[in-house]
Write a structure and sequence with these properties.
The complex is a heterodimer of chains A (47) and B (726). With 47 residues, chain A is mainly alpha-helical. Chain A is built from 1 helix and no strands. The chains are: A mainly alpha (47), B alpha/beta (726).
């Protein structure tokens, strides 16, 4: 029983850390200037 | 002043129904002002939002929003970055201008602009105000710190100022909440008033030269007043700004206007400043009365010492030494108390849960690992208490002034200081704060060295190693060697950051050093509430990290240090069985595989594993050590602290002590230099351009910092041994 509980706790920790890393790395995909004032891409949005 | 004069722009009329506040009765307000005008304090006072209030310029970089309700409904406030003008020459100025002109994606144009002026520095503050007044937005002027102005002998006629500006002026004292009801009422009424506009005239030739630029902007959807303001500022700036990049024919029109202005014998680069300051001089003359006294204030007397060319840096170093010394002398009893509490918790949990994996996970993994990090909470609290006091009293701005001289000597922009200072708390907001730096090369140079500033995540590592291996002996008659060692680690990071920045500025990121304009606020007593909020915020961040990321990683490391299980050989003692189990676990095998890499630094495989696991976050080194020594200990050692276990750790082969003061110092130097933080790497990728460009910069930074860390730790250990120190 203890081993089963421990396995679930370790799995939850793995999922938490994996999700945190995914979010951290995903946030790095967009440069800081984009999505903020003046998109600067010449897309025609006029901003 | 007659609005029909040559070069003057007609004030826009009262709003049409289409321009009335947007639906739902919610009024959208933008708060703008120079740095250090108390804008963030006013924002907090209006919204009750607990935003950090600092005492040095440039505290507001991120977009911050809040709301309050008055008797007519909800009001949302966006707190724009502190800025001296709307020249859009830095990212934060550009954001402010884009929001106010309605060109910021995802943010509606505000219904009302509130310009916060520092009453004691009215002349300089009115430059920004005069630009905002021309944007055609309903505008309210909050004249803040009128009490400080009166104390300095300045009396400002708010009614006269209202007449001069063409917008309601409300005297307030944001720190005490005075005048806020009147301000809220003025904000609510502002959309119904006539719009303010330009209050001065341009020379006729300049006004004529700017007409085509204004027309191009009007054709692109700007109102006439905002177009005139933009056209005038464009004469002096190098880049038009991202929010104008889509306006057709703008750059040729600006170039032609510049040529015409020059042909008329005027200077395009200074026309705006001369025109605005000429008008501002008249406004100040008519609204401000100065009392006769001009004696030296307390601030002047303190600054005579604190900013002295030779004495200032000495005061700065002495204050820092005092702070770091206190961290050890004051925190030690509290650390002992927290260690004792975790010892009791460990015994209680160990006794309550039957022997088995769950018992081991909780006692040897979670409590030993997370607990070993949490014991350093008192030191983090004390450090941030001191930093808060230095900020609140106004000394931190002086520290910036003193450091500016060194910054410029290495070629860094003066504005780099505040991001670097933020780096002492955490590199992530520090790197984001580099957005205030106009030049991309200066910004990159600052980002490249910022993780060298010792962040709070390094405190548990420094505190563990210094508290365990550096004796608390007195040096120089008054200083404690532990405090001096900690100060040395901070100085090592700071000095290296300046040296490396200098190298970058002379090679890869060559560019001119620029001066910094910075206000020195008057000294004042620290506010208990502000200090409590600041320290509480830092402590809660630390606890949250310990309870989430560090807890999860500790659980994973415990599993790696526990499985696969190894049956103890016959006649093995408990201690030998535990060591064999740890050595054969997944973590032990990984550790032994990387041991050859760390052996030249004097480390064993356990330290190697600690370093590898701390690539996620530096504090994980301490929790990893806690878990490894928790799992690898026998029952008798169960209640001893990590520090006691580290002191007794010996190499299996030679029986020599693993941790000597030399190894400890080498390890600290490694952590001063190594960029061991996933969040920092991610934010560097984003802030250096994102995508592959950002990845390349982050990889370059990670690589040179790791090489520096390894090389320096090697030099410390091998050099120290050659000198017979270890």
């Amino acid at each position: 029983m203890q081993t089963l509980i421990v396995a679930l706790i370790v799995l939850a920790a793995l999922l938490f850390v994996g999700n945190r890393w995914r979010r951290t790395l995903m946030s790095a995909r967009v440069p800081s200037g984009r999505g903020e004032p003046g998109c600067g891409t010449g897309c025609g949005c006029g901003k | 002043m007659q609005e029909t004069a040559v070069g003057a722009i007609p004030a826009p009329p009262a709003p049409s129904p289409a321009e009335a506040p947007r639906g739902g009765g919610v009024l959208h307000v933008a708060l703008i002002g120079n740095p250090n005008t108390g804008k963030s304090t006013l924002f907090n006072a209006l919204t009750g939002m607990r935003q950090r209030v600092g005492n040095y310029s440039g505290v507001t970089v991120e977009r911050v929003e809040g709301r309050y309700r008055d008797d007519q409904g909800a009001v949302t406030i966006i707190d724009l970055p502190g800025t001296y003008s709307l020249s859009a020459s830095s990212p934060d100025e550009e954001i402010a201008l884009a929001v106010l002109t309605g060109h910021a994606p995802g943010i509606d144009r505000p219904d009302v602009a509130v310009v916060v002026l520092d009453a004691a520095n009215l002349e300089r503050n009115l430059f920004l105000a005069s630009q905002v007044l021309e944007l055609g937005l309903p505008t309210v002027v909050a004249l803040n710190q009128v009490d400080a102005a009166e104390a300095a002998g300045l009396r400002i006629d708010a009614v006269e100022l209202t007449m001069e500006l063409g917008a309601p002026v409300v005297p307030i004292v944001a720190t005490r909440g005075e005048g806020l009801d009147v301000l809220k009422s003025a904000i609510r009424k502002a959309p119904g008033l006539d719009r303010p506009g330009r209050r001065f005239e341009l020379p006729a030739e300049a006004a004529a030269a700017l007409k085509p630029v204004e027309q191009a902007l009007v054709d692109a959807g700007f109102n006439a007043s905002a177009a005139a303001m933009e056209a005038l500022r464009l004469l002096a700036v190098q880049h038009v700004g991202k929010h104008l990049s889509g306006v057709p024919g703008l750059e040729p029109a600006v170039a032609a206007a510049r040529a015409e202005v020059e042909a008329a014998g005027l200077l395009p680069t200074s026309l705006e400043a001369e025109s605005r300051y000429g008008w501002i001089g008249g406004v100040v003359d008519s609204c401000v009365t100065r009392a006769g006294h001009s004696g030296r204030t307390i601030t002047d007397r303190i600054d005579a010492v604190a900013l002295h060319r030779a004495g200032g840096p000495l005061v700065f170093i002495a204050l820092m030494a005092l702070v770091f010394q206190s961290i050890f002398t004051w925190a030690e009893p509290m650390i002992g108390l927290v260690e004792g509490l975790f010892g009791i918790l460990s015994s209680a949990v160990g006794g309550a849960i039957p022997e088995g994996d769950l018992n081991s996970l909780l006692v040897e993994g979670v409590i030993a690992g997370v607990g070993s990090v949490l014991v350093f909470l008192p030191q983090i609290v004390i450090l941030f208490l001191f930093i808060g006091i230095l900020e609140d009293t106004g000394y931190m701005a002086r520290a910036a002034f003193i450091m500016d001289r060194f910054m410029r000597s290495v070629g860094l922009h003066g504005r780099s200081f505040i991001p670097l200072l933020s780096g002492y708390a955490c590199a992530v907001p520090g790197i984001m704060a580099t957005r205030t730096i106009e030049s991309r090369k200066d910004r990159l140079a600052t980002i490249m060295v910022l993780p060298l500033m010792s962040c709070s995540a390094r405190i548990p590592i420094y505190a563990l190693l210094i508290g365990t291996f550096i004796p608390p002996v007195v040096v120089g008659g008054i200083f404690n060697l532990q405090g001096v060692t900690l100060l040395a680690m901070y100085l090592l990071g700071t000095v290296t950051a300046l040296v490396v920045a200098s190298l970058f500025k002379r090679t890869l990121l060559r560019g001119q050093a620029r001066p910094m304009i910075m206000e020195l606020p008057p000294y004042r007593l620290p506010r208990v509430k502000s200090l409590a909020l600041s320290v509480g915020h830092r402590a809660s961040l630390f606890l949250k990290k310990a309870g989430t990321v560090i807890l999860s990683l500790t659980i994973i490391l415990w599993a790696l240090a526990t499985y696969p299980r190894t049956e103890p050989a016959p006649r093995m003692t408990d201690q030998q069985a535990q060591e064999a189990q740890l050595a054969n676990s997944a973590l032990g095998r990984v550790g032994h595989a990387i041991e050859p890499l760390v052996r030249p630094l004097g480390y064993d495989w356990k330290i190697g594993v600690g370093i590898v696991s701390s690539f996620a976050a530096r504090e994980v080194f301490v929790s990893t050590m806690g878990t490894i020594y928790g799992v690898g200990s026998d029952a008798d050692e169960g209640s001893s602290s990590l520090r006691e276990r580290l002191r007794g750790e010996r190499h299996g082969s030679s029986g020599a002590l693993v941790y000597t003061p030399l190894v400890a110092v080498g390890l600290m130097v490694f952590y001063v230099y190594a960029m061991m933080c996933m969040s920092t790497i991610a934010v560097v990728v984003r802030e250096t351009g994102g995508g592959w460009t950002g990845v390349r910069w982050a990889a370059f930074q990670f690589g040179w910092m790791l090489a520096l860390a390894y090389g320096s730790a090697l030099l410390v250990y091998q050099g120290g041994r050659l000198l017979g120190w270890g």
